Amino acid sequence: MNQDAVLAWVESPLQLIGAAEWAATHRRTVPVAGRLTPQMSETADLLLARGARFGEMEPYLGVPWKLLSQHPHWLVGDGFSGQFRLAAAVLRPRTLTFLDDGAIALPFADTLLQRRPYARPHVTERGLTSLAAPFAAESIARRARTGAAHLFTAFDLGEDRLAALADRGFGIAQHTFAWTRATAPASADLGTRVILGSARPIDGRMPRETYLAWLTALAASAPADTGPTTYLPHRRETAEQLEAVRRIPELTVTATSVPVELILAGATRPVHLHTLPSTTSTTLRLVLAGSGSTINGEPVPAASRQAGFQT
Hints:
By secondary structure, the chain is an alpha/beta fold. The chain has helices at 13-26, 38-49, 65-70, 82-91, 105-112, 127-145, 159-167, 178-182, 200-203, 208-220, 239-246, 260-264, 280-287, 302-306, and strands at residues 6-10, 30-35, 54-60, 73-76, 95-98, 149-153, 171-174, 193-196, 229-232, 251-253, 272-275, 294-297.
């Protein structure tokens, strides 16, 4: 087995972009074990068309045991995954590099620092997932002590976390989506005002009625000379929710099948974005750097907070 062999094990489109950025930064061709979903396939096709340094692409369901056993260096998309914990405890890879899985990057960093339990935020874990946690944690900590555990992130972890992670032996490399920006063609004209869809109603963190009322008010507040506001759906929005969004006046729904980071990276004129608190507040500031675009992080509507929904 090649002791330098690296494999990207990714489960979401954002993780796949992180793998492409890592491969470009390190000038390495990286084979990919990717979760089998339509969004992953379409994102992979687009990244390959833009020249991503991906080797063999292996779609999978479950744990790709054979591939993992053949590659001592894993680029891990979801460090909280129960499947990852089990595989790390059993196979004990020589080197681990954790890619971003959205804003969960911060609680995962705190997990590595033992400042919080090894459990996904807001989830009650049971069974094998919970049992494997301490073994995976020890496997990661052992790699860190030998300089073989890394984070490759676009998120600002804060000086305190960075110093504490370095003290424990973790290597941290931060990226700015440089490859994504450099390889993006001019994006389709979405207008100058864009609202990013949210999965909060789908996840039970906001009543759908409150969400639709928020969108209606935001669309109605557009200056008269900007034209219709474009709505880019979240990849997990349901057809039922999108149908309700389409009925909102002055709002044009533009269907997307790949991450918004890939859609907007080639913006040729300033875009004014509106979004509820989400990962994109961080990623798009980097993707759109220098374009003159603005990102308005909208507060969660008061009705959601009053009803006791998680924010």
